[in-house]
Amino acid sequence: MTAALASVPVSLGDRSYDVLIGHGARRQLPDVLPPAAARAAIVTQAGIGLDVDPGVEHVVIEIGRGERAKSLATVEHICRELARAGISRSDVVVAVGGGMVTDVAGYAAASWHRGTAVLHVATTLLAQVDAAIGGKTGVNLPEGKNLVGAFWQPHAVICDLDALSTLPPEEWRSGYGEIAKYAFLGVDGLPGMPLEEQVRACVALKASVVAADEREGSKRMILNYGHTLAHALEAAGLAADAGTATLRHGEAVAVGLVFAARLAEALGRIGAGRVAEHRAVVSSFGLPATMPRGADADQLLAFMRRDKKAHGDLTFVLDGADGVESVPGVDPGVVRRILSEMIEEATS
Ligand code: GLY
To answer: Of all atoms in ligand 1, which is nearest to the CA of residue 216?
Structure first.
């Protein structure tokens, strides 16, 4: 039996969809398939451990794990399997997995027959509160992460909390890094909430931001709070979505939130009390607030300058009197000083 599910709408005109949240939510899959879909292609990874039944004839396409498999080669593999299975444009791709799977399968679906419906069954906390919602899809190139992609909204998103029962501790921490982010974007009381409510509240906040600015013209940038440092740590090999890097993506976001608060304080945008609040929220989720071993201020600064949202200068998403917003033209000297202070504190 499926317990009562929460349903959060993402309002995007004729591309609107619902995010279904709760234990056993995967059992709703047949009910939310596009009515015209006669067949489904389930894209997943070995060991995901969540069985889904779309209720129509289907094939299963397995893809590899980790950032290296988030590639155009994997998209080609998926599309060739779709061809072999005879998946038509009116059929559906069902992504079952974490953010890597929903990103790659979403991009393959966006390209297959110039656009085939995709439905995400998100199996990690990070995918449930962030990656699977909002239509960002894409893959990496050797030259950088997520450089090739498309906005392709899913037909529905299913967040089955049963999937989290086998989540390893580092994946929980990674998800909580994104949840901590939402605490500064307008979701109150997150640290003490039951899990289901945390997921629902974060999804609702993300849905409202995506509805206001689907293609990240302005407002959607706030979803990158804490991410400029996180992406620089990833580029430096000190954080990654999987593998042996010191930090997972969400843990790097947690460090990035504290860094962004300290930067905002140094720029006179917030006071010391608000920085302390950032530290308190991050630590309430058991997340790190210190730089990982091996961090180098000049290297991180160089990666920040190359961030694809930087438009040639140093742009950060920062807290301030009007809330969290995108701030261009930040003084590199101040950024370098805060980086150096945090590196110094981590090693002393
Ligand atoms: N994860 C940031 C966004 O979806 O815009």
So the answer is: 5
